[in-house]
Each structure stands twice: as C-alpha cells, then as structure tokens.
Amino acid sequence: MANRRDSRIEPSFEGPPQTRSQTGLSVSEEDRVVPSNRKASAKRRSSKAKSSRGGRGRSRRGLFGVLGRLFYWCFVLAIWGGIAVAGVVIYYGAKMPAATTWSIPDRAPNIKIVSADGQLLANRGMSGGEAVGLHEMSPYIPEAVIAIEDRRFYSHFGVDPIGLSRAMVTNLLGGHFSQGGSTLTQQLAKNLFLKPDRTLERKVQEVLLALWLEHKHTKDQILEMYLNRVYFGSGAYGVEAASRRYFGKSARDVTLSEAALLAGLLKAPSRLSPARDPKAAEERSQLVLAAMREEGKISDKELKTALSAPATRSPSYWTGSENYVADTIMEELPDLIGDVRGDIVIDSTVDLNLQKLAEQSIRRLIDESGKKLNVTQGALVSIDDSGAVRAMVGGYDYSTSQFDRASEARRQPGSAFKPFVYMAALEGGRTPDSIRNDAPIKIGNWTPDNYGGKYFGKVTLATALAKSLNSVAAQLTMEVGPNAVVEAAHRMGIQSELQANTSIALGTSEVTPLELTSAYVPFANGGYKPDIHFIRRITTAEGKVLYDSGGGSAPRVVKPEIVGMMNSMMTGTVEIGTAKKAAFAWPSAGKTGTSQNSRDAWFVGYTANLTTGVWFGNDDGTAMKKVTGGALPAQAWHEFMVAAHEGVPVRPLPGTWKSTPADTIVPDDIPSADNNQPAPVPSASVGQQAPSSQAAAPATQAPAPARVARPAQTVDADGFNMPADDGTTASVGHPVPPGNVGGPLKKKKQTSILDILGGG
C-alpha cells in the first residue's frame, strides 16, 4: 500500500542531471502534468491584454494632463505677468505728477507777419504756422494721416492692441524694427509731454497719457491738436507751416497728392523731406495713396489722378526776400510788446508786390551781368515819406545767405555821401549858384582825384554835385569843417559812427543801405525826419491791439529853402549827371556813389512819393569790374521806381528855389589861392546871380528879371561838356588853376545868429 501510494507520488529531483540519470527514472515533458502553470499562462495573457488597453487609456489621460498643466502654468504666468506689468505701471506712474495737474501745454505761439495789403509775408515762432481747425484744412490731410498712421483711430481707446501685435510680429519676422505700434493719441502724448527717449519708462507714461487724452478730449480734438503740432521736417511744425514750406500755399488749399506727401513725412520727417530727397518723398506718398484707396477714403479715379499728377513742391520756402524783412521785424518785436505769449498778427509796412519787384530786379541784373562784372550781391531799400519801409531786399538769395546786407552790412557810400557835404555848405550860406574851381587840389598828402581824372574848371555847386566832382566836395568840407558835415549827416538819419576828417567828403566812413536811404527821406518829404519803421500794428489772433505805430509827428531837420536848393541840385544828377539811366516820367533826384576800385556801387534817389537806395558789390569786398553807381544801381532803381509809380498821380519834389542870372558876380566866398594868384573869376557864360553873401552887381546895371519860382530842377549847366573859359572842354590835359587851389585849411569862421538873419 505504501509502495503504491509512493508510486503515485511524483518524484522530486533536486540534484543535477547526472544524479537523475543514475536513478534509472526518465520523465518526458509530455508526462508532466502542471495544471497550475497553464492557468498562470492564461492569466498572464489576460493581464497583457488588459495592460495594453489600460496603457492606451493612460496615454490619453496623460496628453490631457500635459495640456492642462501647460494651461495652468500659462495661467499662473499670466497672473504674475499681469502683476509685474501692474507693478511697472504703478512704479512709473507714481513718478509722474498727479493726474489732477495734467493739462494740455500751450501751443508754441505763432507770429504771422502780413504785408500792407494783407498778404502773408512769413510765419515765425516755434511752430512756423498758425493753428488751423480740422474743419478748415483740406479734408484730404486728416484722411491721409489716419490711413497711413492709425487706421483704427476712431475705434480704439488710445492704445491699439491689434496694431501693436501686428507691429511686433512684423518686427520679429523681419529681424529689425520696421513698424511702430503707437497710435496718433500716443504720438500726441509724446509730443505734448515727453522726451523722445526710447525707454520703458517713457513708453509706460505715453500709454497712461494717451488714455487720459482719450478720456478728456474727443477724437476730432485729438486729431486737430496732433496735426497742428507734429513735425513735418525742414523746420516745419504743424500742417499749416508744412503746407507753406513745401507747396507755398495754406493747408486749406492742399490737394490729394499734396496731402499724401505730407502724411508720408510723418514716418521720418527729416529723411523723407522733399527738400532733401524728393524721390523718397514721392515714393512714400504713393504708399499713402494706396492705403487711402484700401481704406475706401478715395476712389480709383482719384487715385489714378493723384498718381498721374504728383505734388510739386515750391522752389524753396526760404527763398523770398521778404524773409529779410521778417527777420528785422522779429528783432524789433521784443522791444515793442515784450515776450510773445500767444498767437499774434503783425501788420507790416511792406508792400509785397513792390518787394517782389525789387527782388526780381536785383536778381535779374546779377544773373545777366554778375560773372562779366564780378558782382555777386545787391541790396535795395525803399521808404515812403512817413518813414514806412515799403520794400527791403537784403541779398541775392535768402535761402543761401540770411545775412541782411540792407540793414547789417556797413560799406563805404562813396559820393552818395556828398549831399550832406553840400547841405552843410548851403546851411553855411552858399547856394547852388556858388562857384568853385574844379581842379586837382592837395590836402596834406591827400589829393582827391575826380573819377576818370577829368576836371572842369569853374563850376557851380549844382554842376559839381551833378557830376560828382571830388575836388569841389573836398573844398567845401575844408570850408565848413568835417564836424559840420558829420552833424548834418547824423541830423538827417545816419546812425553809424562817422570820422570827422576831410576825406569824409568822399564817403569814406561806412554806413548801411538802410540808414543811408533813410537819411535821404527828408529831401523827399520837405525836411522832416520820420521814424523808420517796418511795423504798423500788432494784434492778437482775436484782434486785440497790442501795438500801433500811430504815425507820430516827425521833427523838422532841414529848412524848407535848403530842401529846395538840395532838390534843385540833385535833380541834375538824374537829368544831366551820373544817374541819367535812372530818369523816368516823375520828377526825381538823387546821388550816385562808387567806392575805391569799384568795391561798392550806389544810387540813392527819390521822388515825392518814395526814397529808394540800391547797392551792388561783393561780400568779401573784392572789386567789381568798373561798376559805378550810374550803372547797375541806377538801372535797378529805374526798374523798381517805374513799377512802383505806375498809376500814381505825378507830384513835384518839395521846395522851390529862385535863381536870378546876372552878367557879373563877385565870388567872395571862393577862398583865395596861394602864391599871390588871384582867385579865378567866373566867366559870363555861367550867368548866375550872386548869393546874398556875395557883393552886389554894379548899381548902374539894371537887374535881370527874376526867374519864376519853380519846383526843384537842375540849375543851368551843360553836362559833362560844360565849356571852359576859352571855349574848350575842360579835362586833365586842359590848363587849370594850380593844384593847391584853396590854400591850407583855414579856421572856420564862426557864424552868429545876426549873420544868419542878415543873410551873411
């Protein structure tokens, strides 16, 4: 029993194979019955299947888990980012003044200068243009600016997230900064309150200020402020200044193509300025037009028209000679009204039409003769009898040189200074009929030669002035004294310092064209010295008067009879003298002047309506090629005065002078010659009456009938071919009195009141 029970028991072999073989027992794999292993295998297969299905489920659950965690951390980061942004905003916002103190700063005041007839001369000030309402300016301007700078201007709240995101993406893809995301409101905030620093602080403050602007002002108000303050390049702040700068017109009259050009400048005002790079400005304007069409602001027809007729810029905003006038006005302004705190309008005395005529004449003559005669600059000043400056040209081209040669350049006037010598002589008792001997004279080591070396012997003062004889002017200066000449010139209006020496007779002391011209005005108005002025009135933009010249009274500086005699003599300069090219249909008078070696050429002349002075020369003082006052200056004067007097009723020059001819005169006011030679006796052909200070004619001779009192005219003279004593024409080769005629300088006789009253 035991053995059978044992035989049913499966033997257990725990030893190695050799031990198992030694027992004689052999068990094949088929004889093994292990039911528990089959169950385990099935379980394992079932477990693998379940494991496969569970893995796929866990994979799906893991993907959602990652996304969830990613969303979670993004949410967390967004919260912290928002906290950080809020912290930055609070930090930089705390550094700004309290919002209750924020206010729109006053726009830089504009100074509008208009001509006597209301035309615009210039806009000056920081902005360079008046403020123009949004409803006043061309509608194309705001449409173009919005289309290219801020398409969602009327829909965003001051900051445009869409535009900002688009700009960021574009800049990242491009690898460089090419677009900005600032709105017009942000740009205005930056212009009004902030410095142009590219810092985080400035950007944060810009956003805060933009939100405040949107809260305080309407969209139209913001756009109007922006257009009137933004920089358009070439020194133009505001759309009005830019329109006049580039197109020579108001912003009210800007066309579509011009508006596109202006809007295109805002991206890079200096680089895209048509004054600097017209091609770049035009290309940019085409982009603006395309943007306007895309936004539906213009039609296809308008686009085609604008592209076919691009904006044409004016030659130069700063070319006009009226800017010389504007500069002078700006210098005078502080003394009249102090600091300018708001927009003002200055009514000037300048006639813009006359100003243009003067500029055209100066430029034409230089263009035609400049190279041939070595002339590069010219100046012209015209003043009416009240002292109002009607035109002033300070140079050939203001855009190339802003130096005002009319009011700032001091040059030698040459013979144009002689009228003050003759006036002093007349005030000392001489008359236009007084005789002097035109001959080579010597004053110390100085010999004042006549132009061309020609001398004419015995001449009247009127003839000597008409022919601009240097020797006679020097003699008169010796007689009356240089101090008397200086006093007369200063009394008439010369302000520069004058050297009281004998050579002053030939205009060796320097003066400006403005002051020399102003000193001739008393000859034109009857002897009165008015205040020379450029400004008639100054008002605020609302019309409040801040200053009015008032046209005050002018003091008399010359006696009427002296004015009559001077006008009589200086008429000869135009009729038979050195300025015959200046003559025109009006009674006129004046004096030419040419400094040594033709460095300066002048003509200052006048009618009863206007006094005008003209100068030609070179800034560096180089000599011109034989240019005299009777050439270019007289031509320019003639052109200007003919146009200025067109349609104006003719008026005679003020003052009259009576001249009664006699067969014999005794010229006791002629100094005696040295070497015991008698003073030359004038020939009967001169036929002039002796002045009151001279000896009377013989009593046996019936006095000739007096001439009828007449407006100032030239006295009797025969021009450059005036006969000498022997009937020949005086010249260097003709025998003349000795060169030291007049003798040494004698002490001037003091004239008393009794002498003047007695005609002495």
Report on the structure:
- The chain is 40% helix and 9% strand.
- The protein is an alpha+beta fold and 760 residues long.
- Among the domains are: 32 residues; 177 residues, Biosynthetic peptidoglycan transglycosylase-like (Penicillin binding protein transpeptidase fold).
- A five-stranded mixed β-sheet has the order 2-1-3-8-9, covered by helices on one side.
- A hairpin with a 5-residue loop joins β1 and β2.
- α16 packs across α19.
- The chain starts with a helix and ends with a helix.
- The N terminus and C terminus are likely disordered.
- Keywords: Carboxypeptidase, Cell shape, Cell wall biogenesis/degradation, Glycosyltransferase, Hydrolase, Membrane, Multifunctional enzyme, Peptidoglycan synthesis, Protease, Transferase, Transmembrane, Transmembrane helix.
Helix content range of the residues, please? Answer: 40-55%
**Looking at CATH, which topology of the domain at 132-308 would you report?**
Penicillin binding protein transpeptidase fold
Question: What is the alpha-carbon Rg in Å?
Answer: 48 Å
What is the number of strand segments? 12
Q: Please give the CATH class of the domain at 132-308.
A: Mainly Alpha
